[in-house]
């Protein structure tokens, strides 16, 4: 087991390094520069700025310096917001995005699985149709439409919730709802499909024949196996939701880190592009690792380490 | 078996957690932050939106509206623009000007204080202005100080700080020597990059401007709280010399970047002012809710006179005359802008009291018949049987696209020319435009200081803002002379002539002048929006 973890960890580091390298050179290949604006700064000032951010050095030297700093968890200064470091920005933005993402995930998982299970148990019944209609709606309505709709109905027409910003629990309700509908629908559909499959399996019939209560059959025997595909999507879903979503954070003026992904590229703010990419990749890789661990727990037949399985 | 129980427990916990959050959310009363001053009737709080995190509150660095609209109310320079946009005594109580108009001696108010109680001194100004010009500061606004003797050389790494002619005669007397008499000098120095900096504070903590706790103000308000990327709050500064005329107690700035959200927050009273969302502009204009103020600047197109077919003046003019600016603002942009038939915007008065724009008239105005004639003439001059292919390039944005398509239509209808459209991501676009890679491309200019010369100097030979390849010796000389001219009447004559030369050669197609459109709560009065300059809240009030 320990060798498995060590191997996985090394693989994770290599993956991260490949991503860092790829992003670094791609980003510098993209035409444009952080100092290219409508207004022109004079040549001397431009030169000073470039030397301050080490942009005048050869690309390989810049790359080396970046890796050196990265190993010490120093993501460098932002070029656009010169008095802030990327560490500051992520340190501020991530907790907010994480909070929003966590509640969203909880809501999406709980309601998605519930809907999916009920739909499967009442296959082709009224509940199934109802649940799947909700799911189809959730998938087809993009979250920014949902967000606008929620604001219009629940903040402007019937002023229950505040329109935007992130300062109290009341402010959190609308963005969580808007963000959760999509993932909820995905989870509901996946759960339903795999539940239907599992419910036709022999061991379920055996369980029924043994006279087990339906609740026990569903939760103990069916759901556990049915959750595998759900867990698979959860890894990447969690990574993207927990690190913030540009559109929802923009619409609700939430001070998360979603905007950095987009703004940094528009501004060619190199350290911020790198910082967000590294951070997101690290979270994603971690999540995929957790998913692999979860497989083993949910289905003991899936062994983490083949040699040990002998 | 244990595992199943564990999973069940986990699922139950999820439910429980969800329930917990739900009750927490339901149980707590919302903080009253959003609702404009309902809680305490006595306290006057203005709710504004800054759109995003200020770039920097370091005066010479944050060269943009998101930094300077608020900074303008936290600090104050020697002068401050009044309600009619004229520079008035501010931190300086008065000043003397030498006979040749080049040496200004400012007398700083005895009661001009920093929010930490320190005196605002002449040394604070010397420190701040030299820092603005220091090449190591890397200020994008440094060029605004180039009319000070020794400034340009220092900023270009060719001189030293000691040669910059700013000095503290005594604690409260500040003297500055200009390279030439500049009528607009007093207006330029109201700009935030000329704000003083508390030298003592800045030397102890070079990042004094990065947090509310370390920020020292000398303006009508001081910074009370700053939650980065979220919001910040300014409160009335009791140490301000004119505090008795400041009516608001607090200004809360949200950072909402989505215009639709901003508008919704305005309708529910969470904000006191709002921009006009594009989709609702028509409706809101019709309802008469939108306020419009001038803004000194222009939306225009640049020809590249080094590329075919625009090396030919008549062909350029033909394209320029084929554009119907009036239609453009009435049917395309629909934001009540003024159509532009010249380059300098409205609002600059010559010594006789005439508006520059009105006085110099419409220099290039829609004339389809003449456009056709000039195109024919130009093609003959160049020996073109068919016009070389023309591509019009704009930076990717909805509003730019609409205008580009309208232009395409106008060239097609009025000249019979099929123009191709291309768009590009803005950063790449800017770089390529500077490198003269486009034939015809979108541009905009917002004035940095309130004088026609600021518009015209863009087009002198080799100016980084020229970006057309156009060069004219007479024009260059006129701009140079105008900058040295002390007699205002003569100076305006030169500028009138220069603008005529510019538009006669037509390296540009003017489209429309900019304006500022906004919605404002009826309870709010006294916010001043200058055509050149930043938001002014000193006299703002709220019922």
List the uncertain runs of chain A.
Answer: none
Main sheet: strands, sense, barrel of chain B: 6 strands, mixed
Average pLDDT for all residues of chain B = 90
Question: For the terminal residues of chain B, how far apart are their CA atoms?
Answer: 68 Å
- Work out the radius of gyration of chain B: 27 Å
β-strand number of chain A: 0
Helix content of chain B: 25-40%
Mean pLDDT level of chain A: 87
Q: Please state the structural category of chain B.
A: alpha+beta
Largest sheet of chain A: none
Oligomer classification: heterodimer
Radius of gyration of chain A (CA) equals 24 Å
The greatest inter-chain interface is formed by: A-B, 62 and 64 residues
The counted number of beta strands of chain B is 18
> How are the strands ordered across the major sheet of chain B?
11-16-12-15-13-14
Query: How many H/I helices of chain A?
Result: 12
β-sheet strand percentage of chain A: under 5%
Task: Please give a structural write-up.
The complex is a heterodimer of chains A (310) and B (543). With 310 residues, chain A is an all-alpha fold. Chain A has helices at 2-29, 43-52, 59-71, 86-121, 126-140, 143-157, 169-199, 202-209, 214-242, 246-251, 258-267, 270-298. The two termini of chain A are 13 Å apart. By secondary structure, chain B is α+β, with helices and mostly antiparallel strands. Chain B starts with a helix and ends with a strand. At the A-B interface, α2, α4, α6, α7 and α9 of A face α1, α7 and α14 of B.
List the helices and strands and how they pair.
The complex is a heterodimer of chains A (310) and B (543).
Chain A: H1 2-29, H2 43-52, H3 59-71, H4 86-121, H5 126-140, H6 143-157, H7 169-199, H8 202-209, H9 214-242, H10 246-251, H11 258-267, H12 270-298
Helix pairs in contact in A: 1-12, 4-5, 4-7, 4-9, 5-7, 6-7, 7-9, 8-9, 9-12, 11-12
Chain B: H1 2-27, E1 45-49, H2 65-74, E2 79-81, E3 87-89, E4 92-97, E5 103-108, H3 122-133, H4 151-155, E6 166-170, E7 173-177, H5 185-188, H6 199-204, E8 221-227, E9 231-236, E10 250-254, H7 259-267, E11 273-274, H8 281-286, E12 291-303, H9 313-321, H10 325-333, H11 356-360, H12 368-382, E13 390-395, H13 398-415, E14 419-424, H14 426-434, E15 440-446, H15 452-456, H16 473-484, H17 488-505, E16 508-520, E17 524-525, E18 541-542
Parallel strand pairs in B: 1-10, 13-14, 13-15
Antiparallel strand pairs in B: 2-3, 4-5, 5-7, 6-7, 8-9, 9-10, 11-16, 12-15, 12-16, 17-18
Helix pairs in contact in B: 9-12, 16-17
